[in-house]
Amino acid sequence: MHSKNHFRLAYLIGSTGWGGLEMNQINNAHWMQERGHSVLILCVKNSPSHQYLLKQRIPYELITKHRNHYAFVRAFSLWKILREYSIQHLILRSVSDMSIGASVRLLSKRKLHVHFFMEMQLKTKKTQWFRTIRYRCFSSWNCPLNYLKTQVIEQTKIPQERINVIPSAVRKEFFERKDIVTIRQLLVLPEKHYILGLFGRIDRKKNQLLALQAMHLLNLPDLYLLIVGRETPNDPQHYLEELKEYVVQKKLEGHVQFIDHVENVSDYFHAVNCCLITSEDESVGMVTLEALAAGKVVIGTNKGGTKEIVEHVCGRLISPENPASLAEAIREEKEILRGTFVEATHEQLSQNSIDYVCGKVEELLLRCS
Predict the structure, then answer these.
(1) N or C: which end of the chain has fewer CB within 10 A?
(2) Are residues 261 and 112 in the same domain?
């Protein structure tokens, strides 16, 4: 049920990257727009977010990229835009947008509410005086998982009444149930193989090499690995090249396929038997949630967001940086062959539905208004 209250919201995307954080901002803006709220996205000119929004029906304004700290001139320009649109609430997700968000809040004489939605872990204490002043400018600090809320309480001086847990929403197409044979035919994938899916940005921290090492150890003729994602633009790690070299070196060419970033990624989730999460330490685990929504078993590293999500639903946890541990988990899941779909608990999936999450956001905005 949609809220009877109407809010004027702005979503700030100050980065020039294109990943889960930027997509989450745009998706959430779109969902709130569908629920009848006035929405505005602020993004950097010619950024991937700008290029994506050219094809969407979401109002946006272009801004100049700002520094991570003390961007007072840019903050004043941003405040002018927000004032012109009579924005009531500004929503941030990136740490690099925190400083300018706090500055805009002060420029508004605290009439504008600024909400931070956490996407990354706090690795160290954040109790320095300048951070405490900045964080206290926020009307709310929202965590997608309980362990992140605990981190915020322990490592900052934010008043606890401003810290909330609001789950991450999963797009509706992941909850659909598609015939696995039909979708594999459509995507030209092996129809009778046991297919593993590895989704997300190609990055050393995502550790896709671990999956390739496990594939080499298993050496099974009917095992297939699908790696879907691309490297971050303007961040030349050459990691994808190394992964492809490893595939050739270990003669895995017939068992591994790389797929660049695709818009209909949910189709690939529905095509696999099992999803792997090989990240060194995943903060939130959106891919984990998407895999579970698609009814897939998840094998993930025993840390961070992956641990909190998987240990309560269907899946297996493995030791990070341990190819043998991953290989054994894959072997066991393949032998069990649980079937096309494995349903996570109803409670887990319902809390990640768009309606539930947007409802929680609306409750937050109403409390702060």
Answers:
(1) N
(2) no
Burial of 42 by CB count in 10 Å (0-12 exposed, 13-18 middle, 19+ buried)? buried
Question: Average of pLDDT values for 330-350?
Answer: 69
* Residue 362, in any domain of the structure: yes
Instruction: Say how far apart CA 58 and CA 358 lie, in whole Å.
Output: 17
CB-side neighbour CA atoms (13 Å) of 10 = 28
Q: Same structural domain for residues 93 and 216? A: no
Arithmetic mean of pLDDT over the chain: 91
Return d(Cα 318, Cα 275) in angstroms, integer: 13
pLDDT in tens, 212-223: 999 999 999 999
Question: 3 in a domain, yes or no?
Answer: no
DSSP state of 131: H
Give yes or no: residues 156 and 188 share one domain: no
CA 35 to chain centre: 22
Inside any domain, residue 2 = no
Q: Count the domains in the chain.
A: 2
| 114-134 pLDDT, tens digit each | 999 999 999 899 999 999 999
pLDDT at 277 exceeding the cut of 70:
yes
Residue 46 pLDDT: 95
Check residue 341 and report its DSSP letter.
-
Q: pTM for the full model?
A: 0.90
Number of residues assigned to the chain:
369
Question: Which CATH number covers residue 309?
Answer: 3.40.50.2000
Other CB atoms within a 10 A radius of the CB of residue 235 amount to 10
Q: Which residues contact 204 (CB under 8 A, 6 or more apart)?
A: 237, 239
Per-residue pLDDT band at 340 (split at 50, 70, 90): very low
Parent domain of 231: 172-350
